[in-house]
Amino acid sequence: VIVWGANGTGKTSLLDAVQWLVLGDVPRLRATVLRSQEDVVTNRYADGPASVEIAFRDAGGTTLVTRTGHGKNGRLTVRRPDGTHHEDGQARTLLAGLIGRGDDHDDDGKWFLRTHLLQQAEMTELLSGDTKERYHFLAQLTGLDELSQLDDQLQRELRQLRAAVRERERELEEARERVAVARSEHEESMAI
User: Fold this and answer.
1) For 67, how many CA atoms within 13 A lie in the half-sphere containing its CB?
2) DSSP label at residue 113
3) pTM to 2 decimals?
4) Backbone dihedral region for residue 116 (phi beyond 0: left; psi -120 to 50: alpha; all else: beta)
5) Residue-wise pLDDT tens for the chain (192 aa)?
């Protein structure tokens, strides 16, 4: 999906709202906050706290995800198609699943920003980075970073399996030697 429009029509505000809902923060706005207790997202056109809601639709129905409030007093809620309602920690886990990322990744939202909200600043970073940075960026964008992690894990497990096979082969060779000695001793016994 490409969001296009004239300057000042709300493109960046839309993307900031999505980012705030998913990450609970908008890092690029952090520098504009004057007091630490202020939130980066405010509702200037209505009384009350800011609120963003996104509907995720699939064959199972519509899941509504809402972030409301200010800073540490904010709330993340998820309402599933079956009517169940989840908040905060459980809601974060469900949201991570909805966007296709396990809750165990701690990359300050870079993965989400590169794979779901590729904004102009991210494209500038891609174009101005060195070869290694570009590779890392494109690996995140295409999901190769996760394949690389899986490959690393498989390589570690393969090394462990090969070591276990070598150990079993050594044990088998020792057992064959013991059997050969026992046969020899048996043949000598029979000859006597």
Assistant:
1) 23
2) H
3) 0.56
4) alpha
5) 788 889 989 888 888 888 888 878 777 776 666 555 556 677 677 777 888 999 989 888 999 999 988 766 678 999 999 999 999 888 888 888 787 765 455 555 566 665 566 666 677 777 787 888 778 777 777 777 677 778 889 999 999 999 999 999 999 999 999 999 999 999 988 888
